[in-house]
Amino acid sequence: MSDLEVDVVVIGAGPVGENVAGRAHQQGLSAAIVESRLVGGECSYYACIPSKALLRPVDLYAATQRMPGVAEAVSGGVDVSAVLARRDAFAAEDDTGQADWLSGAGITLLRGHGRLAGERAVEVTHHDGTTTSVAARYVVVATGSTPARPPIDGLDTVNAWTNQEATQVKEIPASLLILGGGVVGVEMATVFRRLGARVTLVQHGDRLIPTTEPEAGRRLQAALEADGVDVRLSTSMTAVRRDGGSGDGAERSSTGGEVVATLDDGSEVRGSELLVAAGRRPATSDLGVDTVGLEPGRPLDADESTTVLGDWLYAVGDASTGAKLTHMGKYQARICGDVVVARSRGQELGGRYSHHAATAEHTAVPQVIFTDPQVAAVGYTEAGARDAGLPVRAVSYEIGSVAGGSLQADGYDGFATIVVDTDRAVIVGATFVGQDVADMVHAATIAIVGEVPLERLWHAVPSFPTMSEVWLRLLETYGL
Predict the structure, then answer these.
(1) Which stretches of 53-159 are assigned E, i.e. beta strand?
(2) Fewest 10 Å CB contacts: which of 1, 190, 233, 276?
C-alpha cells in the first residue's frame, strides 16, 4: 500500500508544475505536488522575476537620459540599495505565500526530493529522512533545469556564481567576469555594469545571443560596449583560479581574492566574481527515470500532448524537449492538465493538441531579452527558416524612422524584421530590437500562430504615432 494515492502527482513546484496541478485539480482530479526547495521554482526566485526587477530600474534610468527635459531633471544614476530592496520585494527567498496558495487550492504539497519508483509510482524523501510513497494515475515531471558547468580547469575551486547568486546578490562587486553571451549573460552584463561593476563578458561564439537574427547580436554588442562592457567574442576560458595575493580591499571577494581567467590566446582577465552563464541542462539526473526505461540526465521526449510514456507519464517545461522558457512551460502545463483530465474521463484529445500545439512549440515560440536595447523575437530567423527548407524572404525597417520611434527617444536605435514564407504569403518569424519593444512581439505571435495572410494583415491598421506603425512600413517594404 502507498502512503498517498492521488489522480495526479507533479514532481516540481515551479510555475509550470503549479499550473499542471492547478488545472487538473480545478477540473475535479486530486493532485499532489513535490518540491525539494522553494515552491515557485527557479523563475520566481532566481531567474525571470528577480532579473527583471533588477533590469527595469536601470533600463528606465537609461530611457530618461534619451529624453530632453527629463534627462536634465533625472541625474546621478540609480540608488543601488533601493534597486536591491525592490528586487527582494518581488523575489525574497520565502515561499510561504506560494505554499499557502497550493493549500488553499486543495493541492497536497510534499516537501522533499521526488523520484520515480516504477510505473505510476513516486517516492518522496523528505528533509528529515522520512519517505512518502505516492501512487498516481498520472505522473508529471516538471523539475526544470540546472546551470551547465563547462569543463574548465579550476572552475570547481573558485566559488563561481550561477544565475542564482547573480540575481540574489546582496552587494554589487567591483568587477564581474561573465562566461557566456546568451540571455543570462547579456542581461546580467546590463544589470551589473549599470549598477557600477566593471564587466568583462567572454563568449565562445562569434556573436552574442546567437539564436536571434545576427543584426540583433551586433546592435546589442555595440550597446554593451558603449556602456563600458568589455566583450570578448570567439574566445574561451581554459582555466580559472582565485588569486589571493592581488587586488585591493574593494576588489577582494568574501571567498578570497580576484578570479583570474586564462583565455585561449594565453591572456588573462580578472574580476571580483565569475558568473557562469553557459546554458542549462534538464534536471533529470536523479529522478529515477531509469526505473521506467529512460536515460537519466536527458530531456524527457514528450509529444504535443506532453505525453512521454503510455497514458501515465508526462513532462513539461525545461525537463522536456520543449522550448526552455517559462511562458512556454506554462503553455505545456495547461495542455498537460487538460490531457490528463480528458484521459481520466475516457475522452478523445482532439485536434487542439496536434497542429496548433506543434506550431506553438516549434515555429511560434516568443521570447524577450530584457537588455537595452530589448530584443523581442518569435518564430524563425531568416537563416533558421532556410535551414528548415522554407522559401522565405526577410525585410527590415528602422523603428527610429517611424514617428512613434522618434518620439519614444532621441536618437532611437532599433529595427524590426519579418521573415515571410513566400509560397504561403504568411509570416513565419519576426524580430524587434530597440527601447520598449517587448510588447510588440505578441502581435507577431498572433500573426504566426494564426497564419494570417499578408494581404489580410494589410488591413490591420497601426495606431499613429506609435512604434507599431513599423508594421505598415514592413509590409510596404515587402511590396504590399
Answers:
(1) 108-111, 113-116, 121-125, 131-141, 145-147
(2) 1
pTM of the prediction?
0.94
Assign 388 to helix, strand or coil: coil
Give the H or E element holding residue 335: helix 326-344
- 477 contact partners, CB below 8 Å, separation of at least 6: 395, 396, 397
Length of the chain: 480
- Within 65-150, residue ranges assigned H as helices are 80-91, 96-105
235 close to 153: Cβ distance less than 8 angstroms: no
Cell of 153: 580547469
For 78, phi and psi rounded to 5 degrees?
Answer: -95, 155
| CA-based radius of gyration for the chain | 24
Determine the Cα–Cα distance for residues 326 and 332; give it in Å rounded to an integer.
10
**Per residue of the chain (480 residues), what is the pLDDT tens digit?**
569 999 999 999 999 999 999 999 999 999 999 999 999 999 999 999 999 999 999 999 999 999 999 999 998 899 999 999 999 999 999 999 999 999 999 999 999 999 999 999 999 999 999 999 999 999 999 999 999 999 999 999 999 999 999 999 999 999 999 999 999 999 999 999 999 999 999 999 999 999 999 999 999 999 999 999 999 999 999 999 998 744 443 344 545 799 999 999 999 999 999 999 999 999 999 999 999 999 999 999 999 899 999 999 999 999 999 888 999 999 999 999 999 999 999 998 765 665 555 566 678 999 999 999 999 999 999 999 999 999 999 999 999 999 999 999 999 999 999 999 999 999 999 999 999 999 999 999 999 999 999 999 999 999 999 999 999 999 999 997
Domains detected in the chain: 4-40+95-147+282-358 (3.50.50.60), 155-276 (3.50.50.60), 373-478 (3.30.390.30)
User: What's the distance, Cα to Cα, between the start and end of the chain in Å?
Assistant: 68
Query: Cβ neighbours of residue 439 under 8 Å, at least 6 residues apart?
Result: 376
Pairwise CA distance, residues 223 & 82, whole Å: 25
One-letter amino acid for residue 438 of the chain? A
Q: Position 66: which residue type? A: R
Residues 6 or more apart whose CB falls under 8 angstroms from that of 225 comprise 231
Give the integer Cα–Cα distance in Å for 64 and 52. 18
Round to whole Å and give the CA distance between 5 and 268. Answer: 57
CB atoms within 10 A of CB 289: 23
